[in-house]
Structures
1.
Amino acid sequence: MPEYESGTEYIAHHLGFLKYGQKADGTWGIAHSVEEANAMGFWSIHVDSMLMSLLLGFLFMGLFYMVSRKASSGVPGPLQNAVEFIVEMVQTNVKSTFFAKNELIGPLALTIFCWIFMMNLMDLVPVDWIPLFAQVVAQDSHLYFKAVPTTDVNITAGFALAVFFLVIFYSIKIKGTGGFLSEFAFHPFGKWALPLNLVMEVPSFLAKPVSLALRLYGNMFAGEMIFMVIAMVGWFQLPLHFAWAVFHILIITLQAYLFMMLTIVYLNQAHTKPEAH
């Protein structure tokens, strides 16, 4: 790991992304400096976030597939117990929160919880380990590499927008286009207060994906920053790192759970037709 002149430089480097995009000279490639990364603009790709997200997604699917293939009715092993506990927890929450009939909701909720939890879990890996490994593999001691995908607002926004589009899709499918739009125009005060209804309901509806994305991103980003500050302490970081990691386990689990539960609630609202008055 290269030496840094100050703690600010250390944190700034660890907050940088491995970006791929179009450089100032028109060529495409990996950014090797802050200037090159900034010049790539909005359409650059965060390779590290995408790579870690995909790896953890495949790990989640492979792990659950392996357990399902080896599951037995006898005495289950610890891994099977853990998977069964997660599945039962998700199933219980779906049954108690989602009151329509849609076979997609259960698998969707399970995927959201497990995938986000695994991405959050990367925050417990010491902050220098994965970036150092990436630098060794790339033979570049100044390579940027972020290991926690949920500290990238692009990833959390991607999850939130996917849920948002599902909400719109099922709202129109279940209620029809007219029924979906009438929820904004005629509620909560009736058709005579249409402008006021729109002013109240449209921003509230659009705020759903924003709050989903920023809640997860903000909590994980703050946790990562604390780990970085602890890492600058030197050898005294070990007890501090352990203490914060124990507390942070609650945060990463809670954030995955909240995202899953809000997804179920929003989709239940999309499947619920308003009562006629």
2.
Amino acid sequence: MPDITLSIDERTSAVIHRLADFLSQRSIQTYLVGGYVRDALLGKGTQDVDIAVLGDATAVAKEIAAELDGKFVLLDNDNKVARVVLPEFDLDFSTIENGIDDDLARRDFTINTMAVNLNWIAEKLTVIDPQNGYNDLLQKTIRATSDDIFKQDPVRLLRAIRHAAELGFDIEEKTKSFIKRDAHLASAVAGERIRDEFCSSIATNQSYTVLRLMDELNLISPLLPELDACKGVDQPKEHNWDVFNHSIETVAALDKLFTNIGTGQNGLAEIPWTDELTNHFRQEISSGHSRMTILKIAALLHDIGKPVTKSIEEDGRMRFLGHSKDGAQMAKSLMTRLRFSGKEIKTAERIIEQHMRPTQLSNNWEMPTHRAIYRYYRDTEDDAFDILLLSLADHLAARGPLLNKEHWNYHIQLIKYVMLKHSQEQNVVKPPKLIDGNDLIEMGIEPGPEMGTILETVREAQAAGEIHSKDEAINLTKRLFN
């Protein structure tokens, strides 16, 4: 393979050269390996640098941490794997047992089996490529290094899909057959490893491709059995798809909405989108997962309560009474199993439980009352905008090619109205307190549930424009108390 210039940004290059000098002075054989080399050849930036050491990688990592003023983290004492955390990126160190060729042969996919000898770092770097990974990189192909890589580590089943989504590559057919064969092994993988691979995949704008690949390769059933149970569950005639396909289409619609909402396509120019909202969805909730990623997961799971709540009325009408509440609890159980954080679970749980709320704010194609707006923002808290965006995606995914433009335009106007109330009428969304618990105590009302009910009723009346002053609030309280 000819010499190739790796695309290394200036900041990373400085650390790599300093690292190479440090190791070469100590005659420690070291290589840049795996994902870092792959991404460098693709001209992609990366936050993680993978380094393989011929020797005890943990001992080397400790020295490097001290040299670079980084933090040493032991990842696996038995296999001698460690990490050095620097302000801008991480250095992951692994131990080579029997030479670099053997180390590369034990890796997962050919595009991850390339290495660069750090002891000979220069402007042009000779890439070690025993598995012909560079050719697969050019062909945009994900190819397993052997037929048992998934048995060695089943999390690779999802990693293949993540690579395909992040890189825009295709999974080679024989590798697909290996995944189908070994898909059942995924259920034994630690929840947090599945969580991180799945979140990384669905965080891309290729969510639809990811979910369809997971279904094609038999990974939905072992990983998301609650979603698998939605297959073949019919819905009323207003829906174009069954519950399973509707759920996947909803995630796809979210991707399209988030991409197109700034361009004004499909009537979306009406949505009062701001940089503040863009940042809202990009913010990290926890564990490195963004709010948009958790919203996509909630969208995928928003109807998983339908199979257990489905009923047919005497008149033939199909009902799913309580599916939002049941689905929220099922999603909570699923996400707990996959070791999501409490905050992430609570966010998804509220979004799912309230996902029908926007369309229930008014009747007869009218805009919601101030009282309804107040209650909506009170009950949905920080997730109000997430639910509004999901409501639009849910509408698109329900109708599909049968979308009624008149209904769609009304839905957009509804979402626009609710969003504008938040930015333009804070006295409706979150009215300032006219009275508090001390005022009620002075009126002879003892602390307790009744006090909370009265204060909330006063705030609702204030939001609705029925009262405007403290005196009016006190008079209303007297009527309520009496």
